[in-house]
Specification:
Helix content is 78%, strand content 0%. By secondary structure, it is an all-alpha fold.
């Protein structure tokens, strides 16, 4: 257990750097998202090519991985786009509401029980989101747009989590993440070309930050959480992921000099309370095999 907790702490620290690196990139959000997944997929390719034991993947499971990758690509397109308009604090707190949408999706599509904890969690989360949006309305309409994009990022991330919930249960880590990351990369490249975003002409520091985004928050952070799902109930992993906004806000305060307003503090507390309430019962269910993975 000590080893698991240590690795989860590394994962939380890794994903907390994503929003900071993104803010430091001088490139369109779609390009940042595309390079994140391109670099991540390329870095995984040698491991896939020389994988000694390859697990067979059926057609249905492969389709599930590809659909999961589409949701993941949309998640990054929306969330990274939100960071261009709103603060790190607002963005990472709002995108962290994805466990709530996962619960709703599980009830709608997987026939999972919608318990009182989840309903209360939804109410707290909606109220918290309103506080953050109210505070950002006083700043600018752009900040409010960024909040909306962050929420769309949470919704699309939930689609990714719902698809991964069943696939990861019987699929080894590498065979799961490679097609998912690669599909996300293809979607983001397509969207970048569709909206005529250039892949070249940026500063060397921007390319470096985009590579670091792929290496640290994606390959180290996200992959660590996916690995942990094999050994811990998904609800426990989801709760640990809530440490990402805390780490990101602290880093933004020291590196980007972003101040935490009262509205955001109140909204953040309400959202975290809502998510913890929603996951409280699930956290007590030992042996849960549901699969969940961020932002």
């Amino acid at each position: 257990m000590g080893r698991l907790l240590f690795l989860l702490l590394i994962g939380i620290s890794a994903v907390s750097t994503a929003s900071i690196f993104i803010k430091l990139c001088d490139a369109p959000s779609l390009i940042i998202a595309a390079y994140r997944m391109i670099f991540a997929s390329l870095l995984l390719t040698p491991f896939v090519a020389f994988q000694k034991r390859r697990q067979d993947m059926g057609t249905m499971r492969l389709r599930g991985c590809l659909l999961s990758g589409l949701f993941l690509g949309l998640h990054f397109a929306f969330w990274i786009g939100s960071l261009k308009y709103t603060s790190v604090a607002s963005s990472v707190v709002l995108v962290a509401t994805n466990p709530i949408f996962v619960g709703i999706g599980g009830w709608l599509f997987l026939k999972e029980r919608l318990n009182l904890n989840l309903i209360l969690g939804i109410l707290f989360t909606v109220l918290g989101s309103s506080f953050i949006s109210l505070g950002d309305t006083a700043i600018s309409r752009e900040a409010l747009l960024g909040d909306g994009l962050a929420l769309l990022g949470a919704v699309s991330c939930s689609g990714y989590l719902l698809m991964g919930r069943r696939i990861r249960r019987d699929q080894d880590l590498l065979s799961y993440i490679f097609p998912v990351y690669s599909m996300a990369a293809l979607l983001l490249v397509f969207l970048s070309l569709l909206f005529q975003k250039s892949f070249g002409g940026y500063s060397s520091s921007t390319y470096l930050f985009m590579f670091l985004i792929a290496l640290i928050p994606q390959l180290i952070g996200h992959t660590t959480f996916n690995w942990a799902l094999k050994y811990l109930p998904a609800s426990m992993v989801a709760i640990t992921i809530l440490g990402e906004p805390i780490g990101a806000i602290i880093l933004a305060y020291f590196i980007l000099d972003e101040r935490l307003t009262l509205w955001k503090a109140i909204g953040g507390v309400l959202i975290f309370a809502g998510i913890v309430i929603a996951l409280r019962r699930a956290a007590q269910e030992k042996g849960s095999t549901e699969a969940i993975g961020e932002g």
